TrEMBL record:
UniProt KW tRNA-binding keyword: no
Signal sequence residues: 1-24
Name recorded for this polypeptide: Type II asparaginase
Residue numbers annotated as active site: 41, 121
InterPro entries assigned to the protein according to its UniProt record, in alphabetical order: AsnASE_II, Asp/glu_Ase-like_sf, Asparaginase/glutaminase-like, Asparaginase/glutaminase_AS1, Asparaginase/glutaminase_AS2, Asparaginase_C, L-asparaginase_C, L-asparaginase_N
A GO molecular-function descriptor: asparaginase activity
EC identifiers of the protein: 3.5.1.1
Keywords: Hydrolase, Signal
Pfam families: Asparaginase, Asparaginase_C
Binding site for substrate: 88, 121-122
Family, similarity comment: Belongs to the asparaginase 1 family.
Residues in Asparaginase/glutaminase C-terminal domain copies: 245-355
The keyword Nucleotide-binding appears for this protein: no
Length: 358
């Protein structure tokens, strides 16, 4: 009997020791972060060290991007994949579907803790929002770019990449949706925009605000988005090989119906009207939009202003016109949500719900 008690006690001690050691190993294990490279200025090269415009984007490969920041090894076990090598003004729906499927495949692996996507800054906000709606994991996905090419004095790419990898490996970034990290700041994909053509502080969520900072080798969060994203959305691109054609018609003083009519004639299934002010419809454009609606094209009233709510039944009788309003999404992001909405429904009631949900 005594021997049995000793044996049991010993087994318990051994199990406790093993559990503690496993816990210590997990805590000590660096996160496994995969870098998916797509091109852009972060991979750009210029003729001289002072060339910060007029350089060539999308030249440096992912292995060299990683080699340029040996400090990455201190914060994560990093591997790299060159998914594309393009300037981001050339990003397409097909690129987005390829990228989203690769992200979801990788995040389904238990040994992948987070993903960083290096990307040109011109369309970072669009790719990030698209992924925010279709990534099916709570694991961190961080999109990063640079405003100066890798060859420039004080290039911002290396520190942005380091901060992005650090954030992607941070437990605090789990469940926050797709993030955009540049200039030591963490922004939500839904709310961030490029606000300056050339400066390194260009990415801002001007009114809705950033989520946090990367300071002192740590990602610090102070807010979270109230809108649904990633695992909480109804969108699934796993079986999609194309997205519905949705275009944007920009409005300005003296505008006519030409652009709207041309986009509809070219086969647009949805049209974002980038209106002036609170999404106002000029008299010369309204009939063309109504005619498009009658043909079954979904019309979304957005605004070129960039901040604020486009109010339903404000500058136009949306109930009567059977239009949708973009809420606070800018035209380029409203286009993304409408494309995904059209993979699910043509009901304007359902689509309006989506614009108030995501
Ligand atoms: N051609 C632009 C792009 O790839 C360069 C801008 C940048 O990446 O910062 O988005």
């Amino acid at each position: 009997m005594f021997l049995k008690i000793v044996r049991t006690w010993f087994a318990l001690c051994l199990m406790t020791l093993l559990a503690a050691s496993a816990q210590a190993q997990t805590a000590a294990r660096l996160p496994n972060v995969v870098i998916l490279a797509t091109g852009g200025t972060i991979a750009g090269t210029g003729a001289t060290s002072t060339t910060t415009v007029g350089y060539t984007a999308a030249k440096v490969g992912v292995d060299d991007l990683i080699k340029a920041v040996p400090e990455l090894k201190q914060v994560a076990n990093v591997t790299g994949e060159q998914v594309f090598q393009i300037a981001s003004e050339n990003m397409s729906n097909e690129h987005w579907l390829t990228l989203a499927k690769r992200v979801n495949t990788l995040l389904a692996k238990p040994d992948v803790d987070g993903i960083v996507i290096t990307h040109g800054t011109d369309t970072i906000e669009e790719t990030a929002y698209f992924l925010d709606l279709v990534v099916k994991s709570r694991k961190p996905v961080v999109v990063v770019g640079a405003m100066r090419p890798s060859t420039a004095i004080s290039a911002d790419g290396p520190i942005n990449l380091y901060n992005a990898v650090l954030t992607a490996g941070s437990p605090d970034a789990v469940g926050k949706g797709v993030l955009v990290v540049l200039n030591d700041q963490i922004n939500a994909a839904r709310d961030v925009s490029k606000t300056n053509t050339t400066t390194t502080d260009t990415f801002k969520a001007t009114e809705l605000g950033l989520l946090g900072y990367v300071v002192g080798n740590k990602a610090h969060f102070y807010r979270a988005s109230t809108r649904k994203h990633t695992v909480d959305t109804e969108f699934d691109v796993s079986n999609l090989s194309a997205l519905p054609q949705v275009d944007i018609a920009y409005t300005y003083a003296n505008v006519g119906p030409t652009a709207v009519n041309a986009l509809v004639a070219a086969g647009a299934k949805g049209l974002i009207h980038a209106g002036v002010g609170d999404g106002s419809l000029p008299n010369k454009v309204r009939p063309a939009l109504s005619a498009a609606r009658e043909k079954g094209v979904i019309i979304v009233r957005a605004s070129r202003v960039g901040q604020g709510i486009v109010a339903r039944n404000g500058e136009a009788n949306d109930d009567q016109l059977d239009f949708v309003v973009a809420d606070t999404l800018n035209p380029q992001k409203a286009r993304i949500l409408l494309m995904l909405a059209l993979t699910k429904t043509n009901s304007t009631k359902e689509i309006q719900r989506m614009f108030y949900t995501y």
